[in-house]
Amino acid sequence: MDKNSLIKEIIRLKQEKNAVILAHYYQDEEIQDIADFIGDSLELSKKAQQTNASIILFAGVHFMAETAKILNPDKKVIIPDFNAGCSLADGCDPADFKIFKAKHPGHIVVTYINCSAEIKAMSDLVCTSSNAKKIIASIPADKEIIFAPDKNLGHYLQKETKRKLVLWDGSCVVHEAFSLEKLIDLYKKNPTAKIAAHPESESHILKIAHYIGSTSGIINFIKTDPAAVFIVATEAGILHELSKAAPEKTLIPAPSTEDNTCACSECAFMKINTLEKLYWCLKYESPEIIVDEQLRIKALKPIKRMLELS
Ligand code: 13P
Ligand code: SF4
């Protein structure tokens, strides 16, 4: 089927099945364009909570679709490709995390939403990059805190909130690949540019950033800041929405250490989804996200607390 026919069929199936398509900013342009809603992790969780649709097609990675299912046990949640993982979620094994937690008794466990339902079920609070500071600040000062699985976001939160966090040793392969040396060279060539970075980036990148925030935060910053040129240190998929939201601005993707063809950073997990997979997924309502009910109830608690606080 050609691209136009695929798009027509997806729209037809969506109406026929009362489905909603939620997509993250890191998805391919054509997926973002066909989605009913695009957003950052927090916004997508909120949309998943509010929808009246019978089917949620989540164009993103597994932990995002799983979060939607935890919030919507009575809805069918489907994902274009079950292999859409995340280095943060995949690098935090529940058995290892249980041992880690036991080594730090009495600590409040805050986990970044980029983790599995099993890890969420072992947490007191979940957070996303857009509400993490607020979530940490909500914890009484006399309490000790474990933060997992992103050590880079954890280091940033330690600095911002002045709280000591016991950190799990995990990271995002995409945001960890930004090259400080190349970024400085690029900045020297564009001295009027402002650098906007996602907090999953390493601290040496964040140190020179003019703005640090979630994907939606970055879009909002670039849209409203008077500067004309921006260097964007997050996954390249965001450039599509940015070019629509701020068409008059010059956007330069931050260079990664790898010499890849697009000279920018792409998340291979996010890019595993294609328009064709979206079509098959909607047609056969598969692969479907299934979460054991006992596990779901445990994982729901810290997500609900997060949504109440944000
Ligand atoms: P946001 O919540 O900022 O969209 O981040 C999601 C993510 O996976 C970043 O790599
Ligand atoms: Fe996970 Fe990083 Fe991809 Fe986001 S960009 S989904 S954190 S691997």
From TrEMBL:
UniProt entry keywords in alphabetical sequence: 4Fe-4S, Cytoplasm, Iron, Iron-sulfur, Metal-binding, Pyridine nucleotide biosynthesis, Transferase
Keyword Membrane: no
EC number(s) on file: 2.5.1.72
Location of the protein in the cell: Cytoplasm
Gene Ontology CC: cytosol
Any Gene Ontology biological process: 'de novo' NAD+ biosynthetic process from L-aspartate
Pathway the protein acts in: Cofactor biosynthesis; NAD(+) biosynthesis; quinolinate from iminoaspartate: step 1/1
Cofactor note (record): Binds 1 [4Fe-4S] cluster per subunit.
Family annotation (InterPro entries): NadA (IPR003473), NadA_sf (IPR036094), Quinolinate_synth_type2 (IPR023066)
Catalytic activity from the UniProt record: iminosuccinate + dihydroxyacetone phosphate = quinolinate + phosphate + 2 H2O + H(+)
Annotated positions binding iminosuccinate: 24, 41, 112-114, 129, 198-200, 215
Molecular function as annotated in GO: 4 iron, 4 sulfur cluster binding; metal ion binding; quinolinate synthetase A activity
Pfam (any one): NadA
Predominant subcellular localization, coarse grouping: cytoplasm
Cofactor(s) of this protein: [4Fe-4S] cluster
Record: residues binding [4Fe-4S] cluster: 86, 172, 267
HAMAP family attached to this UniProt entry: NadA_type2 (MF_00568)
PANTHER family tied to this protein: QUINOLINATE SYNTHASE, CHLOROPLASTIC (PTHR30573:SF0), QUINOLINATE SYNTHETASE A (PTHR30573)
Purpose of the protein: Catalyzes the condensation of iminoaspartate with dihydroxyacetone phosphate to form quinolinate.
Family the UniProt entry places it in: Belongs to the quinolinate synthase family. Type 2 subfamily.
Protein name: Quinolinate synthase
